[in-house]
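Figure-free illustration: sequence to structure, shown twice.
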Amino acid sequence: MGRIIVEVMPKPEILDPQGKAIAGALPHQGLNIFTDVRQGKRFELTVEGDVTEADLEAAKKAAETVLSNPVIEDVVGVYAEEQ
C-alpha cells in the first residue's frame, strides 16, 4: 500500500487564531525561540500498490477541490510518503 501526504496551510494574508494561540502558549513551556506559528492540515491518502504519477495527480486534484478551501488556503505539499 502506498501513501500520499497532502499538506494545506492558511494563505499568508489570512489570520490564523490557532497558530496565534499556540505561539502564545509556547513561552509558558520555556520555548521562547519561535517567532511565529501557523497551523495547517495534513491528509494521508492510501492507495493500492505503489504510488504512481497518476495517483499524485489525482491527489493534487482532490487537494485543490475537496481537501482545501482555495479562497483561504494553499496546498503546499503533495508527495508520496517514503516507506
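We now fold a second protein in the same way, so the two outputs can be compared directly.
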Amino acid sequence: MPTSFLEIVELPDGRLVLRRAEDEAVLVTLDFSDQAKQFLQGQHVEVAKAMFSTGVQMAGRMTDGEQDELEGEDEPRVLH
C-alpha cells in the first residue's frame, strides 16, 4: 500500500472507518454494538483508535518481511 495519511472517520450511522485522507474509499470498518458502546462508557472511539493503530502497525511489519508463523495454515483459526 502506498504511503499516505490515514484518517479515522465516524459515519452518521455510528460506524468508524479507516480511510486514506485523500480518498473516501473505506479500508477498514468497525461497528460497535450499542451494548459494547455502553460497556465502554462512551470510550469506543478511543478503543477504535487503538485497534486501527495496532492493525496498521501489524500490516507494516508484515509488508516489511516479518511474516508470522500463520502462513500456510489450511485450517480456520480461533481468534480470541
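Summary for the second example: The two ends are 27 Å apart (CA to CA).
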